[in-house]
Structures are given as structure tokens and as C-alpha cells.
Amino acid sequence: MYFDLTDEQQAIKSTARDFLAARYKSERIRALADSENGFEQSDWDEMAELGWTGLALPEEWGGQGLGIVDLAVLFEEMGYALAPSPLLSNTVAGLALSLCGSGDQRERFLRPLAEGKLRGTPALWDAGTPGMIGEFTMEARADGDGVVLDGEKVLVMDAAAADFFLVASADGRRHVVEAGASGLSLAPATTIDLTRRLFSVRFEGVRVAAENTLPAAGEDYFDVFFRICVALAAESTGIAQRTMEMAVSYAKDRQQFGRPIGSYQAVSHRCAQMLLETENARSAVYGAAWAADAEPESLPRAASMAKAYASDAGWRVPDASIQVHGGIGFTWEHDLHFFLKRGRANAAMFGDAKWHRERVADAVLAAA
Amino acid sequence: MDLTLSPSEQQFRDEVRDWIEANHPGPEPEAGLEEVMAFRREWQLKMHAAGWAGISWPKEYGGRGATMIEQAIFVGEASRLEAPSPANVLGLAMGGPVVIAHGTDEQKARYLEPILTGEEIWCQGFSEPESGSDLASLKTRAVRDGDEWVVTGQKVWTTFAQYAKWCMLVARTDADAPKHKGLTYFLMDMEQEGVEAKPLVQITGEGEFNEVFINEARIPSENIVGGEGNGWPVAITTLMNERAGLAFGAIAQIANNLKRLGALAAETRVNGGTAAEDPVFRQRLAQLHIEAETMRLNAYRGLTKTMQSGIPGPEGSLGKWQWADINQRIAELALDIEGAYAPLARGDEHAVGGGAWQYSFLRSRANSIEGGTTDILKNIIAERVLGLPRMR
Q1: Between chain A and chain B, how many beta carbons pairs sit less than 8 Å apart?
Q2: Which of A196, B140, B188, B249 could form a disulfide with B75 if both were Cys (CB 3.0 to 4.6 A apart)?
Q3: Domains: count for chain B
Q4: Are residues B55 and B162 in the same domain?
Q5: Does some domain include residue B146?
């Protein structure tokens, strides 16, 4: 029994903390939020150099061969720094190819992805559908050896930065569609979260060759999904940690009625609540990350617990931090709103808290 | 990171499990504290004979010298299997460790063995009617009279005072010293004139707690623990021991209650289905399971940290706060599931499950008060974990 990071994981954490703090100061995040791509290639190249693009991918395919605990460490820091980066979407594509792709697909797409030379992103939800996990409606129409895709995918992360898409079809399969394929067009979405780009992607008779359809189908992708839930929950935990620290530091400095506001229990007890939620989220995340690496049979339940809890904490803690800050916290000039927005958007992605709680209810009532 | 038990820890767990299963005396008697105490005395004798009483105590004092993780395993298993509490729970968890840490050789020889056997029950005389969370403001006075001290004052919330031989009494021996400095820690014989325990009837109708009226009671000087004027640090050792290790018992208890709650939901009919099919109840039940899991994992993280540093940190306050909150919400959800039947209590033939949830609902109201109120725990977290300025 040992529930703490190893020295190697501590090293990943402090490298990430230092690197991201140096790259993503407030002015830079704001500039990137206003920029066309939302990130810079030079940052990406440095992240690839650090091994982050292939962190939890097998060494055989150019990755670092580390586990989901290590991935959670990295994404907690991505959230803490509010880093605008396609790293999450790229990690989804990487894990999908690694766990569900063929040898040939891994050679053509996974290896360059792990090395940071190609970027991938998933295209899952169909426009006008409820956006539930596993319920995709786009038909993959047979066409010779391959298939043809028609329709519109929404909530596609970082589409403009992607070299290829992993497109979900109604038969439960995923198809690699390369950027620039004939019949493919992108439209940027307007979203509350300015630090992660979303798009709708139209498919008009986009042809997919047989060798670009992944061999896995349906529930096989839950192995990917639950690992991504853990990474995303880790990111939300980092958001909670950072905004709690901002609240505590402000409560120590800000004076009203002749004393620091943090000496008032209405404020200090709110901060204690923020700590409780942040620590709970962190425990749930690392418990689930450990399960992914060491006890995969308990991952589905642990990941749903982590994503449900961190989905709530990831926006409630920044929200409470805004309250501690008072009026200044509600201004565009203060950074808190970026955290609130990223946290709230994260809560909705890859199953919201309610969806995951329902899965937990299923598991615990079935065991009863 | 490894969230599993090592082979030797597993072996220890199996040993604990086998022993409890083989010796478990069944559920505690429901009626009457006298019967409960007799039952618990017998259980403690069994524990002691097998070397399980005082497992955290060093071997030289009759304990088992168990590591922190072994203590956690023992408490967790005992709670999971719903083994009875030993009769002398305060002597084992607080009195013994304080005598071991601060007592003289004579005190160790005199007091430790009867704590382990349960022959002498201990109680804790800290809180007073006007000194609850602000313990150091206590007013009970002890005045020297030759080789003795004469004590006058009132204590409250004294668990099992009516059965106790010894009271861990903190009294003011120097009225002129600053409030934390003028206190002394005594072991007071409860069996004397001048000490009277009166049960306080609590909202469940039971009398676990007492008021203790002390009127010129006498304590020999040799019964001071840790020296005159040193009462505050000695009392703090007692409280630290109260909190350490409790988490793992609480976690197992919550797991048992959640299991019962799931069974209640499955057998209770609501809106043409069962409560287990009701989407609102499902959400609430799932949230409780999630928070119970975070509490369990927090305790593992805390234990790892404590094993590295040697002392439990103030983060333990989070666990006690969370335990009270979850325990209360479990009972609240149970009563919501029972719906119209919620008012029917123990003794009523139509009460759901014999009225057990009504008892839990009422008893758990104290969880956020006893052993440090949730409000005080938030102060501790704010000041000692987050470093916020002290409240003035």
C-alpha cells in the first residue's frame, strides 16, 4: 500500500509545472485565445521533445511507454496552467490507435503521432443528436472495398490543427480521415471555453479506403474512453487546485473592515470547501489512473467516479474562487473566468457528471 | 503507487479476519446500556486474551506493536465485520497511549494492564458546559492540599462516566497563568464522594453521555500525568490519538451502510417501480458511493504521508468532516426512500427495517458535533492546511 507519486512521476510533475508556467503566462494565454489556431507550433514541438505527445503510448510505436498515472500527472498540470493545446485531442487519437488500430495503421498514424509529427483528433458526435457516448448515427455506406461518409460531426476538438480525424460511424467503427480529404470541410464553433477550439466538421461523400477503417468496433472503444475520462478529470483537478490557490492567496491579501477577508469564516470556510473538493477529485483521479494501469477490471467504475466528481469540482471550485474575489473576479481582466469556462466545458465532455453517476448507480446496485 | 496490500499485509488481514469471524459474538443486545456494557466487557476479554486489545501499544506494555497500516487493517476489518466495540474504548484509544507517552513508570505499572483487560473503564473529562470547542477556557479548578489536590467543577459529554473507574481530567491549577498554561492533566478516581455522574438523555432517547459534577473530589499528586501545568500538550496527545486510525473504521462502517441502503432501495416500491429504479434516488446513491470512495482514497493518501513523516497531519480533519457529512446523508436518503413510513421508529410493527434508519438518522446528527465540530474542523483546515489568517 503506497498512495503517492513515485520520484519519476514527481519529476514529470515538476518539469510540466515549470515548462507550462514559463510558456503560458496570462498575456500569452490571452493572445493565443485571440489567435487563429489557438496554439503555436513551437510549443507543440517542445512538448513533443519532452515526450508528451507519446507519453502513455507504447515504446514500440515511438511513445514513452508510461502509464495512465503519468498521463494524469501531466494533464493535472495542463489544467493548472490552463494550457491551450491540442494535446488532449491528440491523446484520444493516440490511445484509440494504440488500443484499437491495426499494425499497419499504427505504423502509418500512431508512430508519427507519438513522435509529434502528425496530430489526430476524434470526430464523434453527430449534429442534432443528444451527444451520448456510443450513440453515433453517421452511416458508413459501403463503397467497393471502403466506405463513404456523409453528415456533420460537432464538438470536434482542435480540428483545424489535426492531420487526421478518427470518425465514429453508426456501426460502432472508427475511420481515419486525413485532413484535406475530398468532401471534408470545417467550421469553427463558438464556445464558452476560449482555451480549447471546437469545430463542426462536414462530410460530403468522403471516401475512406478499407485500410483506414480500424478493426475494433463498439465497446472496444470504452478502453480508450475511460482512460480519457481520467485524463480529463485530472485536467479539471488541476483547474480546481489553481483556482483554490488563487482564492487563498487573495483571501490572505485583501483587507476589508481592517483585516484580511480570509480571517472571516464565511470566506475561510468556503476555501476549506474548495480544498475538500480538490483533494477528493485528486484522490478519485489517481485511484482511477492506478486502476487503469494495475487493475483494469475496476477501471470503468473508478473512471466514472473520477469523471463525475471532477466534472463538478472543476467548475464549482473556480466558481467559488470568483465569489471569494468579489467584483474583480467577475471582470474579463481577471483570469478566473478562463478557468471557470474550461472547467465547465470539461464537465460536459466525454460524459457529464449525471451520465457517469448513472453508470456508478448501475454498478453499485448490480453488486448489491 | 500501489493501492493493494502487500503479501505480508494481506496475511495480517487474513489473520484478523479469521480471528474475528471465529470469535464474533453476534450483534449487540438492543435493550439496555447495562447489557451492552456486560457484552462489551466480555468481548474485550476475548480480544485481550488473543492479543488484539491495544494493538497500537508497544509490546513491552502488553500491546501488539502494530504498524500504522496494520492498525488501519484491524480497525477496517473489525468495522466491516461489525465486531462489537471493546468496553474500554477510551482507555485503549486515549488513556493508555497518554500514560505510555507521558506517564511515570509507577503509573505505567498501575494503570495499563487493567485498561487492556477492561477491568477498569476510563472516561474523558475535558469538555465543560461553557468550554466546548474552546477547550482551553475550561474552569474546573484543582487546589493543592498537601499531597493531594481538591477539585471542583463540572464536566459534560462524558461518555460512559457511569461505568468508569478513572477519568482523564483536565483542570485549572493556576488561575493566573495564560489559559493554555495553567492546566494540569489528572487521573481522577470516579469512585469517591464528590463525584457524581448523571446521564444526559440525547435525541435518540439513550444516555451514552453524562454530566459529571465534581465537588471537592480528592486526587493524589502522584496521579498527575506529564507534570503540573503541562495539561494542554498532554490533552492534545489524547485528542490526536482519538483521531488517528478512526478513519478506516469509519470507511468500513460507511461501506456497510451503503450496502444496506442499496438493499433498502431495491425492496422499496416507488411510483410503480422500485427506489433503485428511480432516477433521482439513483443519482443521490451514486454520489454517496463516489464520495465514500474519495474518502477511502484520501485516507490511503493520508496514511502513506503519515508513514513517511511519522505524525498525522491536519489533513485528517478533512476525513472527519467528510465522514460526518456522508453518514448523515446516507440516513437522510434512507428516510427519503422510506417516504411516508419515515416517521415509524423502533418498536413499531410497521417500521421499515425495524426502525434502524430512524435511529441512524437521529444518532448521526451528532456526527458533525462529536470529536470536533465540522465548523471547527473547517477553521483548522483554513488555518493549518491553507495558512489563512487566524480568526479573531
Answers
A1: 162
A2: B249
A3: 3
A4: no
A5: yes
DSSP state of B307: H
* pLDDT at residue A157, as a whole number: 98
On whether residue B282 sits in a domain, the answer given is yes
Q: Which helix (H) or strand (E) holds A149?
A: strand A146-157
Among A163, A169, A133, which residue's Cα sits nearest to residue A151?
A169
Q: Which amino acid is at B263?
A: A
* Partner A, chain B 63-82, Cβ-Cβ below 8 Å: 69
Indicate whether B191 pLDDT > 60: yes
Claim to verify: residue B210 and residue B258 sit in the same structural domain: no
Do both B206 and B252 map to the same domain? no
Whether the Cβ atoms of residue A147 and residue A191 lie closer than 8 Å to each other: no
* B196 has catalytic annotation: no
**B241 falls in which pLDDT band (50, 70, 90)?**
low
Q: Strand ranges (DSSP E) for chain B?
A: 122-125, 141-145, 148-156, 166-172, 183-189, 195-200, 209-220, 224-225, 269-270, 273-274
DSSP A184: E
Interface contact B392, partner A, CB < 8 A: yes
- For A:268-297, CB contacts with B below 8 A are 268-269, 271-273, 275-276, 279-281, 283-284, 286-287, 290-291, 294-295
pLDDT digits over A102-119, tens only? 999 999 999 999 999 999
Q: Could you tell me the pTM of the whole model?
A: 0.95
Task: Report the candidate in B39, B41, B35, B38 with the shortest Cα–Cα distance to residue B53.
Answer: B41
Residues 6+ apart with CB under 8 A from B380: B314, B317, B372
Contact of B258 with chain A, judged by CB distance below 8 Å, is answered with: yes
Which residue range(s) make up the domain with B283? 245-385
Residue range A214-267, pLDDT digits in tens: 999 999 999 999 999 999 999 999 999 999 999 999 999 999 999 999 999 999
- Residue B114: half-sphere exposure toward Cβ, Cα within 13 Å: 12
Classify residue B94: in a domain, yes or no.
no
Taking the Cβ of residue A248 and every Cβ of chain B, the question of whether any pair is shorter than 8 Å is answered with: yes
Q: Which of residues 100-159 of A touch B (CB under 8 A)?
A: none
Q: Does B53 lie in the same domain as B165?
A: no
